[in-house]
Amino acid sequence: MEPINIQDYEDLAFERLEPTALDYYRSGSGDEVTLRANRAAFERIRLRPRVLVDVSSLSLETTALGTPVSMPIMVAPTAYQCLACEQGERDTARGAGAAGTLMVASTLATRTLEEIAEVATGPLWFQLYVYRERRVSEALVRRAEAAGYRAFALTVDTPRLGRRERDVRNGFGLPAHLHTANFADPSMREVLPLTPGSSGLEAVAQQLFDQSLTWDALSWLRSITSLPVVVKGVMTAEDARLAVEHGAAGIIVSNHGGRQLDGVLATVEALPEVVEAVAGRCEVYLDGGVRRGTDVLKTLALGARGVFIGRPMLWGLAVDGAAGVGRVLTLLRNELELAMALAGRPTLSGIDRSLVVLP
């Protein structure tokens, strides 16, 4: 039977993925408290539906930084997608394009940013880490601009990699035929498997990521590109205000899928204070824990413009490549459409805070 929800795809992906790759995709940091909280927090939010509303015609189309998309559901950046299927990020781009939505390509992709752009039929953003050698990051910016990417998602929650104990136990690294494709320098592209007790990715991040990063990095990035910059990894009102002050066009409320500091708020718990602090001065998005159309509806009601999905996309990719990615996105879209109808909210603009009750 064809999968009918995200959990079905997850179950099938668990059967098909190699164990080390599966652990890399599904793991959180520490005790994985935040990983679980991202999901549980959605379950505690209740909906207040309205009735006797004409829902014979519903509209899900919206924009992300002015770019039209078919729905407020987009694809988050995730690394090393060729661990899920041979075409990896290229299939993700195909699936997102078929669904009429946006994909954010990762710096740590296993296909080059040019290869991804070559097959994409939908809009692309590029997720950027800032390296100790700023020229490395600047070269990625220039390449992304030339390839037609429309914005940068600056990831700010990773001065060091979170302690992902599944990866440590497995001695996580990339198999010999895969590399971090956006780099030619072996010291930048190789994530070598280590003996159990060490993570190859943690070792590379420790060596290459700029641990001295401050808000000046956002100013620096804005000074070298005319493309809009979205700050990914904001979880507080204080940082939301600073992001706006430093010229961010958008914010993605994110705890890195529960993979960085363990024990932090779930993203949907952090969302209201970020929205309030921004006060409409930039667009606000969310990732983390979204598994149902009702999750998207709750996120929109709390003031986000849209959501980004990571792991659900990976499960679709592992099960059926581009078609699986497209199907996962379509399932979520159909669930959101039904939830809007049953909640008496036929338009995205009609979804507001009165729809939800927080715990």
User: Whole-Å distance between the termini?
Assistant: 37 Å
| Coarse shape | globular
Give the beta-strand count.
Answer: 12
Determine the structural class based on helices, strands and strand pairing: alpha/beta
Total of helices: 14
The helicity comes to 40-55%
Radius of gyration: 19 Å
Task: Give a structural overview.
By secondary structure, the chain is α/β, with parallel strands linked by helices. Helix content is 43%, strand content 12%. It has an 8-stranded parallel β-sheet. Strands 1-12 form a two-stranded antiparallel ribbon. Strand 6, helix 6 (134-147) and strand 7 form a beta-alpha-beta unit. Helix 1 (6-16) packs antiparallel against helix 14 (311-343) and helix 11 packs across helix 12. The longest helix is centred in the C-terminal third of the chain and has 33 residues, at 311-343. 51% of the residues are buried.
Features:
14 helices, 8-stranded parallel β-sheet, alpha/beta, about 350 residues
What's a quick, concise take on this entry?
The chain is α/β, with parallel strands linked by helices and 359 residues long.
Topology:
Layout: H1 6-16, H2 19-26, H3 33-44, E1 46-47, E2 62-64, E3 67-69, E4 73-75, H4 89-98, E5 103-105, H5 113-119, E6 124-128, H6 134-147, E7 152-155, H7 165-170, H8 186-189, H9 200-208, H10 216-224, E8 229-234, H11 237-245, E9 250-253, H12 267-278, E10 283-287, H13 293-301, E11 306-309, H14 311-343, E12 356-357
Parallel strand pairs: 4-11, 5-6, 6-7, 7-8, 8-9, 9-10, 10-11
Antiparallel strand pairs: 1-12, 2-3
Helix pairs in contact: 1-14, 4-5, 4-14, 11-12, 13-14
